[in-house]
Amino acid sequence: MQVLSSRNVRLLSRGRNEVFAGRSGAQRPGGDPRTRSLTCPPLLSATRRGLPKEKMSENGIMSRAKVLTIDTMNPTVKKVEYAVRGPIVQRAVELERELSEGMKKPFAEVIKANIGDAHAMGQQPITFFRQVLALCSYPELLSDSTFPEDAKSRACRILQSCGGNSMGSYSASQGIDSVRQDVARYIERRDGGVACDPDNIYLTTGASDGIVTMLKLLVCGEGTTRTGVMIPIPQYPLYSAALAELGAVQINYFLNEEKCWSLDITELQRAVNEARQYCNPRALCIINPGNPTGQVQSRQCIEDVIRFAAKERLFLMADEVYQDNVYAEGCQFHSFKKVLFEMGPEYAETVELASFHSTSKCYMGECGFRGGYMEIINMDDEVKDQLTKLLSVRLCPPVPGQALMDLVVNPPQPGEPSYGSFIKERTATLSALAEKAKLTEQVLNTVQGISCNPVQGAMYSFPRITIPEKAVKEATETGQQPDMFYCMKMLEETGICLVPGSGFGQKDGTYHFRMTILPPTDKLKILLNKVKEFHQRFTQQYS
Amino acid sequence: VPLWGITLQLQRCARDITNMSQQAVNGVSHRGRVLTLDSMNPNVKRVEYAVRGPIVQRAVQIEKELKEGAKKPFTEVIKANIGDAHAMGQKPITFFRQVLALCSYPALLEDSKFPEDAKQRARRILEACGGHSIGAYSASQGIECIRQDVARYIEKRDGGIPSNPDNIYLSTGASDAIVTILKLLVCGEGRDRTGVMISIPQYPLYSAALADLGAVQINYYLDEDNCWSLNITELRRALSAAREHCNPRVLCIINPGNPTGQVQSRQCIEDVIRFAKEEHLFLMADEVYQDNVYAEGCQFHSFKKVLFEMGPEYSNTVEMASFHSTSKCYMGECGFRGGYMEVINLDPEVKAQLIKLVSVRLCPPVPGQALLDLVVNPPQPDEPSYATFMKERTAVLSALAEKARLTEQIFNTVPGITCNPVQGAMYTFPRITLPQKAIDKAKELGLVPDMFYCMRLLDEEGICLVPGSGFGQREGTYHFRMTILPPTEKLKVVLQKIREFQLRFTQEFS
C-alpha cells in the first residue's frame, strides 16, 4: 500500500509538519492490505491541532495556512474517482474554448462521446412530455387551444397533487403520492401483473441519488466487519465513487468479455469467498442492461444471481435504468423484480432488493431533469422508516423531474390525441439506436487491434483495444494509464472525447474505451471512421 | 392516552405480529434480513429532521382521515411547519414561469402571447444547454452563463465587490451545497475529529448532516433576551469547551435566522469574521433569506461584502462559503431545487476535489438552474415584464412584512407566549410556558414537553407546528416554530386558534 503520496513526501521534505511525520508511520493494525487501503484512511490527513497558527507566528511573512487544504480535507472524498467527467473531459472543455477563441486545431469541433447525454447529441425531446411540463410550469396555458387535451389532463392531474397546485411547492420527501401510484401501476404492467405497492416506491433525484442512498443505509462495521459491496468490473463509476466516499469495501467481480460480458456465478462465488477474508459482503450490485458493457442479462442468469444472493445473504441492487434500451435479436429485458416473484415465495418473500430507474436514458434521454425512482422489496419496516427520515433531510426530489417521471410511466394511451405522435417519436429514437448499436459493432470490428462485443443494449460500446508495447512504455513514463494516454492523444488529434477503460475497471493488461452510440447516424459514421484512422495511425507510430 | 398515542402503539403491535409470523414461516432463523435496524449505518440512525418529523407524518395521516370523512374538531390541516410558500397559496412570479414554459417547450417561442424579454431569456438559457435542451446534462458546477449571471448579481448586491464565476457552484437547493461543503471539511478521529459550530436554535439540516457525516456538533446559543442575537463571548465559550474533545474547524451562521428570524447587524458580522480568523475557522454563511428582511432599521449585509470591506488582511485569508436558494425570498420556488454557493479563498487543490465530488452526481436539475438564472437576472426597468414583475415581487414582500408584525403582535398578547420580533426570514419562534403538570404528563408519554404541546395542538386545532426541541433550545425552555406564510386572513385564524389552545392547555394542566 502506498502510505505516502508523492505530495505528502514533498511536504515532509520541506519539514513543514513534524506532527505529520510522526503520524505517517502509524498504521492501523491487522487486516488484509486491501481492506486497509479501502476502509482505513491512512492517518496522514489527521488534522493538526493548532498548528497553522504556530506556523504563522514562526515565519510571519508567508500567507497563513488555510483551514481546509488537501491534507486536512475529508480523506474519503480524495479517494473518489469519476472518470466519466474526469481529466479527459476537462481537457475537452478546454479545447472547445480554444476552438471558439479561433485557435487552429486538426479538427473543427469536439465530439463528446464520453457520456450518455442524448439531447446534447441532438436527440429531440418527446413533444408530449414537454407540452405537459410547459403546462405545469405556466398553467395559464391550460386555456390555450393549441395544446392537446391529453397533455392538459395530465398537467391538471399533476398540479392537483402539488401543494397550492404549484410545481414550486415542496412535495412529500418520498415523492408525490399520485406519481408513486402511477409508477407502481407501470411496474405492474411491465412485470406482467406482479403486484407493486406505491409505498415501496421512492422518487429520487436521478437514479444516482437512489443508489447512493441505498448504499449509505447498508454501510456499517469496522475492519473485517466493514460492509463490502460487490460490483461488476467493468462498472459504472458512480458505484466505486460512492463506495470510496462511504468508506465501504469494493468487491470486484469480473464480467466475461469473451462471452459478451456475461455474468458468471462461479466468478461471483470466487469474489465473495475472497472478500469474506477481509470484510463483510452484504450487497450485490447488478447493472442490466450493462453500463459500460452493453450486455443484456438472460432470464436464467438473473435467476442464478437471485439464488446466489439468497444463499450468500446479499442485498440485491438492480440498476435497470436502460430497461427500454435493448436492441439485439433474441435479447429481452427481464426485471429482477419479475424474476424474483416468478421464483416463488421462498425467494419473493425473503430476498431484499432495490431496483432503480431514471428519466435520463431509454427513449426520452431527459438527463437534465434529474428524475428517477427506486422500488424496494422486502425491506425491514424499521429500516424503511429510517430511509424516509434520511430522505426528508433533503426535503424532496425536484418536482419537474417528478412530473416528467409521471409522464414516462403514464404516457399517451391508444385513443388519446397524442398517442400517434408519441409512438412515432419513441419508435424513431429506439430504432435509430438499434441501428447505431449494430453499426458501431460492425465498423469497430473491421479495425485491426480493436475488438468489440455486440451492443445488445444500453447506450455504449466498450471495445477492447490493443496498445503497442512502445505506447504502454511511453504512457507509463509519463505517469499515465496506457488507455488514458491513448484517449488523450485521440482527443488532441481528432477532437473525439472518449473515456478510457481504466475509469471503469478492466482485467489487468487489457485496455478499452467507452464510447456512447448516441450521435446522429451520419455523425456516428464519421466518428467511427476517425477512431479507425486514429487507431491505425497510433499503432503505426508506436510499432 | 391520546388518539395518536394509541395509533403508535397499534402500529408497533402490528409490526410485532408481522415479525412473529415471519419467524414462524421461515422457521429456520431470525437471522432475518440482511438490512435491519441493528445492521444499518449507525450514523443514519442518529440523523433527526424535525421539520418533516413525526408530527408531520401525523398531520398527513389526519388529512387522509379527514378526506375519508372522519369527524374532527376542524375541517382542514394547516401545515405551518415548513417554509413552503406556494403550498400556502403564494402565486409564482409570472415572468419566471413564462420563461420556464418556453424553455420546456421551445415551440412556444413562436407564440405571440409571450413577452419578448421572456423569450430572450429563454433563448439565452437554451443556447447555453447541450443540444439547446434543458434535458441535457449541464456542467457539474452548473451552466456557465448562469454562473456568470450569479456573479454579476452578487457584485451588484455587494456594491461592486468582484465575484468570480469560477467560485460559483450551482446546487440542488441550498441544502445540497451545505452538505457538500461540510463533507469536504470532515476528517480526523477521536479528539482530532472535525467540530462544527452551529447556532442553537438551528435549522436541523445542520445537525442532521453532522450526524450523517459523524462530525462533532458544537452548540453556541443565540441570546433570546436580545432578540436572538449572536454574542462573541458565547462563541468563545463554546469553542474553548469544544477544543477539549474535538477539532473545531467550521463556524456556521444563518442570517437572517432560521428558525429565529433575527437579522444580524453589520458590526456583529464583522466580529464574527474577526473571530473566525483568530480561531482559524472556515465560515459557512447560510443566506437563503437575504431578501426577507422586514423590520425597520434592519438591513441584510452579506458576509462576503463585510469580509471585503474589512480589507485584504481578512479578504485574502478567511475561507468562506455562502449559500443561496430559489426556495425562499419573494419567489418561494421550493420544488425546483435551485440554489448556488459562492466559495471564497478556497484552496485550489480543494477546489479541484470539490469539482470532482460534484461531478459524481452529474449536475443540479437544469430547470432549477434556469430558475436561478431568472432570480439573479430578473426583468430590467426598460423591459416589457418589469412592471408586472415589480408589482408581484413587492406584493409578496410587503404582505410578508405585514404578517411578520401581525404574528409578533398577536402572540405577545397571549399569556404564556413571548415572541421576539420577526425581523426577517419566514418564521416565528415564540417561547411558551408549559405548566409543570403538562411537563409531567409529557414525560409519562415518553414525549418531549413541546412535542406533547404541538401534538395536542395538531389534534385539537389541525395546526401543524414544529416543536422547539427539533431546533434546539436552552434547557428548561420551550418553543415552537411557525411559518408566517399563510395568507393574512388565514394567518389571523391560525394565530387566534393557537391563542385559544394555549389558554385551554394552560388551564387544563394547572
Automatic annotation (TrEMBL), chain A:
It holds the Pfam family Aminotran_1_2. One of its GO terms (molecular function) is L-alanine:2-oxoglutarate aminotransferase activity. Its EC number is 2.6.1.2. It catalyses: L-alanine + 2-oxoglutarate = pyruvate + L-glutamate. This is alanine transaminase. Homodimer. Pathway: Amino-acid degradation; L-alanine degradation via transaminase pathway; pyruvate from L-alanine: step 1/1. The keyword Transferase applies. InterPro entries: ALAT1/2-like (IPR045088), Aminotransferase_I/II_large (IPR004839), PyrdxlP-dep_Trfase (IPR015424), PyrdxlP-dep_Trfase_major (IPR015421), PyrdxlP-dep_Trfase_small (IPR015422). Keywords: Aminotransferase, Pyridoxal phosphate, Transferase. It is an enzyme of class 2 (transferase). Its cofactor is pyridoxal 5'-phosphate. Belongs to the class-I pyridoxal-phosphate-dependent aminotransferase family. Alanine aminotransferase subfamily. CDD domains: AAT_like. SUPFAM superfamilies: PLP-dependent transferases. Gene3D superfamilies: 1.10.287.1970, Aspartate Aminotransferase, domain 1, Type I PLP-dependent aspartate aminotransferase-like (Major domain). Residues 165-530 form the Aminotransferase class I/classII large domain.
UniProtKB/TrEMBL annotation, chain B:
Homodimer. Residues 99-498 form the Aminotransferase class I/classII large domain. It catalyses: L-alanine + 2-oxoglutarate = pyruvate + L-glutamate. It comes from the Eukaryota. It holds the Pfam family Aminotran_1_2. Pathway: Amino-acid degradation; L-alanine degradation via transaminase pathway; pyruvate from L-alanine: step 1/1. The gene is GPT. Belongs to the class-I pyridoxal-phosphate-dependent aminotransferase family. Alanine aminotransferase subfamily. Its EC number is 2.6.1.2. The lineage of its organism: Eukaryota, Metazoa, Chordata, Craniata, Vertebrata. The keyword Transferase applies. GO terms for cellular component: cytoplasm. Keywords: Aminotransferase, Pyridoxal phosphate, Transferase. Catalyzes the reversible transamination between alanine and 2-oxoglutarate to form pyruvate and glutamate. It comes from Astatotilapia calliptera (Eastern happy). GO terms for molecular function: L-alanine:2-oxoglutarate aminotransferase activity; pyridoxal phosphate binding. Its cofactor is pyridoxal 5'-phosphate. This is alanine transaminase.
